[in-house]
Amino acid sequence: MSSLKGRSVVLGVTGSIASYKAADIASKLNQAGALVDVILTPAAQEFVSSLTFRSLTHRPVVTDMLDADSELAVEHVALAERADVVLIAPATANTIAKLAYGFVDDAITATVLATTAPVVIAPAMDAKMYQSAVTNENIKRLEDRGYLFVGPGVGNLASGLTGPGRLVDTADILNAISDSVSSTKDLEGLRIVVSAGGTEEAIDPVRHITNRSSGKQGYGIAQAARDRGAEVTLISAPTALAPVDGVNMVNVTSARTMLDAVQDACEGADALVMAAAVADWEPAEFAQQKMKKVKGQDRLVLELKKTPDILFEVRNEALIKVGFAAESEDLIANATDKLQNKNLDFIVANDITASDAGFNVDTNRVVILDKSGGREDLPLLLKEKVGDHILDRIKLIKAEANK
Length: 403
Ligand code: C5P
Fold this sequence. Notes:
Elements (H helix, E strand, L loop, with lengths): L7 E6 L7 H11 L3 E6 L1 H6 L2 H8 L13 H4 L3 H5 L2 E7 L1 H9 L5 H8 L4 E5 L3 H5 L1 H12 L3 E2 L3 E4 L5 E5 L3 H12 L9 E6 L4 E4 L2 E3 L6 H12 L3 E6 L11 E4 L3 H12 L4 E4 L6 E3 L20 E3 L3 H4 L6 E8 L3 H11 L4 E6 L11 E2 L1 E5 L4 E3 L3 E2 H19 L2
Parallel strand pairs: 1-2, 1-3, 3-4, 4-5, 8-11, 8-13, 11-12, 13-16, 16-17
Antiparallel strand pairs: 6-7, 9-10, 14-15, 17-19, 18-21, 19-20
This protein binds cytidine-5'-monophosphate.
């Protein structure tokens, strides 16, 4: 289930006796590493409580499109924009009918109408309702527009009947959404090198200088590139994150070891994305023995020297080079300088003073500046989604170069 890791799944729950089964789906999605946003229709709230889903997903649950505290109130298409997949489970005949005709009278129908992500629908209803001509027509209408249906299963129904109408098993639903999010392999054939994490510059055998980078942005880019079919090398300075499956992981510690690994990996690569927070300075001398406290001494001067600038050093004419600029002031001016000095194709600038962007959070708000003077301000996005924007640009630059 690795393709759901870090993916944004919107789970719409409608009102059915099977609504309680959505709690298991939410829990399994959460365990698979997905970011799960649950929307409950008013009818679903008669069967299950928002507290159940809030406890399972550790995220707010949307229960009312007009709720002033909900994210949807501020930006009514926020979930639609963020979603990698929208899952409706269980989906009643009523919700299916509304979707078939574009009605928007709750947060689920609003999100589905506004999203460009795949929509997976798991129906659950009485067999007679499922077999009715109108439900069949509605499902066909939606399938023709690219909506994916999983189930229903056949078995005993709450009505006492036996037949089609049961919500399918959680495992089948998870497989269906996992397939739908990883279906675009548009980067197949591309070799992409990504660096991540904060480097550690050793002072003595027990101490080092490092920074607050969590590695989440670089890991997010590597995952997104892998999911889109690229061959990925992830060069990682120490982080608390689990290795990314399906990529070549190379673990390094210092700026110098990262430089060697990046140079090796960039031979024949198409793009280098330097998301790592590389130390600008390293101790001028490494003390072979642990430095001791000296009685009476209350200051210590540590001499530092410049580390190699990796982006600058890597010279492979065909390589697309992408840098990051994490700034606490003069964001655009500083990022523009780096773009030019490091000879980059584009730079991803983020203001690290914002609490919902930058270090150690799952989201980022960035501005992309390119070498022809273009500027794109992206909204607050999951770090994997920021990765997708970066990868879209790499794909475009590559396509232009191949013309
Ligand atoms: O100059 P500054 O360190 O702010 O630039 C940030 C960008 O340069 C990041 O993409 C970072 O990974 C990269 N970098 C580098 N080598 C260094 C320092 C930073 O490639 N020694």
